[in-house]
Every structure is written in C-alpha cells, then in structure tokens.
Specification:
- The chain is α/β, with parallel strands linked by helices.
- The chain is 40% helix and 20% strand.
- It contains 13 helices and 16 strands.
- The strands form four sheets. Strands 10-9-11-8-7-12-13 form a seven-stranded parallel sheet, with helices on both faces.
- Helix 10 links the parallel strand 7 and strand 8.
- Helix 2 runs antiparallel to helix 5 and helix 10 packs across helix 11.
- The longest helix has 17 residues.
- The radius of gyration is 23 Å and the shape is globular.
- The termini are far apart.
Length: 415
C-alpha cells in the first residue's frame, strides 16, 4: 500500500472513530493490550531481525533502545491498559457561559483527527502512540525508521488484531510501509489528510519536520537535560540523582547530558562523582568532559566546543563549574533544548530562583530528570515530549491530542 493510499484510509477512518463510545474504545484498548501479550513470540522474533541488521552499525546504547524483551512487551501492554483506565477528554466542556438568557456557549474538547507520528528506533512508541490516539478519538498513522520497521510491523499487526476482535476497524491504527525519506516527506506535506504531525527522534528528524512540513507540527525536543548541584546541596543526594539521571538509561531523551556545579561545592563533590561514575563502574564508565575549572579538580576529557550543546545519548557527561545559581540558570537557558532541568539544593531561595528562571517544559527540585515521562506523570504513556510552548508542552497525553470547538445552543436567538 502506498503512503497516499494509507492516508486516504486514515482520513476515511476519522469519520468512524467519532461514532465509537468510550466504553467500546476501552474494550478495544484492553483487547489490544492482550494481543500484544498473545503475540509476544512473533514480536520478539521480528525484533531480533531488526537487532541483527542494526548490530555493528549503531552503538550498544542504541541497540538497547531498539531491543524488546518479554518484560518490555508486558510494560507496553500495561501502558495500553493504563490508558484505557483514564477518563476520555472527548466531549468535555472546558468552559460554558450564557451571554444572553437561553443562549449557551460551550467550549468543548474534540479530537484533532488524523495524528501522524514519525519516529526512529524505539518500538514501544508504536503501542503508546496507538493507545493515546485511539483513546483521544484520533486515527493514528505511524511511520518508523528502517531500523525498527520489522518490530513495529509485528506490533501493529497485534494491535490491529485487538481492534478487530473488539469489532473495530484496523484502519484506526496504520503503519506506513515505506521507510524512505519520500514517505516522511509525504506525511509532512499531507495537507487535508494529516491534522497533526509529531516527530520523535534526533535533532535532524525534528529539524527536518519543522522546516519542511506544511501540516501542523509539534516540536518534540532533543533532550540536552541539565542538573545543577547548588552549594547547599546534600552531596549523597546529588550523587544519587546525577547517577540515576545519567546512567539508568542514557539513550533516552530525559537522561542528563550536562552537569553544572557551584564552585563552592565542586572541590568536594567532583572527586566523589568521579569515583561513583568512572572509577567504580566496571561496565560502562562515564566519560566526563570537563570545562577548564573542573579539569583542575579531577581528571577527565577537556570539554570541546560543542560538548555543552550535544545530546550524547551515551555514557558521556559534560561538566561546567559556575560562580552562582544565577549563572547556572543563565548557562542552562543558553544551552538547553527546553526539555528537563533539575537543581539539587537545600536552599529555598535557590530553588525559587531556579524554578522561576529556567525556561524548560519540566523543572525539578531535588529529583532526577528521568521522571519526565507520560507514565510517570500519570498520563498512562506519552505521544512525545513537547519542548515548544504553543498548544502542548512537556509529556503529551490525551488532553494534548484534543483541540476544541464552540458549540452554541439557542432558542431562536438572532443578532
């Protein structure tokens, strides 16, 4: 099926989804979750084929991003079930007023229509996007990268089986078969067919969509996430937070890429950090890329010109020393991609300065940036993490996949 033919199917399905009750959608979501479990063997077999093709061409960290397991598939199914439990945003009256007696104006939440997602090598995005789109009353068009296409195809086949077992059309969740740039371009320019395009991936993909799309685009950000260790920070707390944010899963967008340290604590903190992240890690020690002040305190790699503007997605951490919390805020706002930033501090004044001054979608006080996730935020899962400010910001759940319209009810009113 060509991409154009697939988009026509999606457009036709848009009219169908508006007639389906929330109860029926929840039934379908639970059936889709069960279908993922029932088809685990086939999904893992296709995923193994993807991994075999990718091995040797991408890093081990990116292989981890691509790899599925029974546990991860169970997590995907649990995410779909969690979405089924959430209240539907469709038809919710956001605001109501009566400017004249008997003339009722209601601002009402409605689906966007056809939501297309272009993503790269994370197969779990397939089920997350499908579940959120369906629950929010939208049709989902998926276009994954070639590295994950076999995996995504098996996942979509399972999801479609679930839809059909619940008596719904499999056209509510569609996967683009073409993995060339041509299909991405067709989605970007599918005026009249695609109501919203969401790119999930690296800087190149997101920039291409923002630059070339003629359909509405949500800019989901690369994650140059920062943690600032203030002079009043509890050192053990800071070490635990930095270790978690950097090493628990470095290939994801909410992982820490830059550490900013107050000069008054750097002499004590940085040697302990090096011991924790480098010396004591037999597997995957973190490469510390140090500015000119940090390298006077501990050994590491001198930071290069671009190291404070790079999403490493690897066991690499850029380190910057600053004179004050105000300088930390200034540095972060200059180099951040607007994703997630954290401060570790015992000072209420520093915390307030940081939370008010940082211009990112998620700002943490004494917690790891790894919590920036739809599931962790109570959204079931996420369609992506928006780093822009219009329409949606931060993890995108059901509400962000709806727009609104005004419904006006009168009784013969004229103006």
């Amino acid at each position: 099926m060509t991409t154009k033919e697939l988009l026509i199917k999606a457009k036709n399905a848009k009219a169908l989804v508006n007639t389906i009750s929330t109860e029926k959608i929840n039934e379908a979501l639970n059936a889709m979750a069960q279908a993922l479990i029932d088809n685990t063997e086939d999904i893992l077999r296709k995923n193994a084929e993807d991994i075999e093709k990718a091995r040797g061409t991408v890093s081990d960290v990116m292989i981890d991003r691509l790899a599925l397991s029974e546990e991860r598939i169970k997590g995907m199914a649990d995410g779909v079930r969690d979405v089924a439990k959430l209240p539907s945003p469709v038809g919710k009256v956001l605001k109501s007023n009566e400017p004249q007696p008997g003339l009722i104006i209601e601002k009402t939440s409605v689906p966007l229509g056809v939501v297309a997602i272009i993503y790269e090598s994370r197969p779990n995005v397939t089920s997350d996007a499908a579940a959120l789109a369906l629950k929010s009353g939208n049709v989902c068009v998926l276009r994954c990268g070639k590295e994950a296409h076999q995996s995504a195809s098996a996942i979509v086949e399972a999801l479609q089986k679930g839809l059909e077992s619940a008596g719904l059309s499999k056209d509510l969740v569609l996967l683009v078969e073409d993995t060339t740039r041509q299909s991405a371009t067709e989605l970007m320019t599918a005026d009249g067919c695609v109501d919203l395009l969401i790119p999930r991936g690296g800087k190149g993909l997101i920039s291409a969509c923002v630059k070339n799309a003629t359909v509405p685009v949500i800019q989901t950000g690369t994650g140059i996430c920062h943690i600032f260790v203030d002079e009043s920070a509890d050192i053990d707390m800071a070490l635990n937070i930095v270790e978690n944010a950097k090493t628990s899963r470095p290939s994801v967008c909410n992982a820490e890429e830059v550490l900013v340290v107050h000069k008054n604590i750097a002499g004590e903190f940085l040697p302990k950090l090096k011991e924790r992240l480098v010396d004591s890690r037999a597997e995957n020690p973190v490469e510390l890329r140090l500015d000119e002040e940090a390298i006077k305190i501990i050994d590491g790699t001198p930071a290069g010109e671009n190291d404070f503007d790079t999403e490493f997605l690897d066991y690499i951490l850029a380190v910057k020393i600053v004179d004050s919390a105000a300088e930390a805020v200034s540095h972060i706002n200059t180099h951040s991609t607007g994703h997630s930033e954290a401060i570790v501090t015992a000072s209420g004044e520093s915390a307030e300065l940081f939370t008010k001054g940082i211009d990112s979608s998620s700002v943490y006080v004494n917690a790891s940036t790894r919590f920036t996730d739809g599931g962790e935020f109570g959204l079931g899962c996420e369609m992506g993490i928006s780093t822009q400010k219009l329409h949606a910001r931060g993890p995108m759940g059901l509400e962000e996949l709806n727009t609104y319209k005004y419904i006006i009810r009168g009784n013969g009113h004229v103006r």
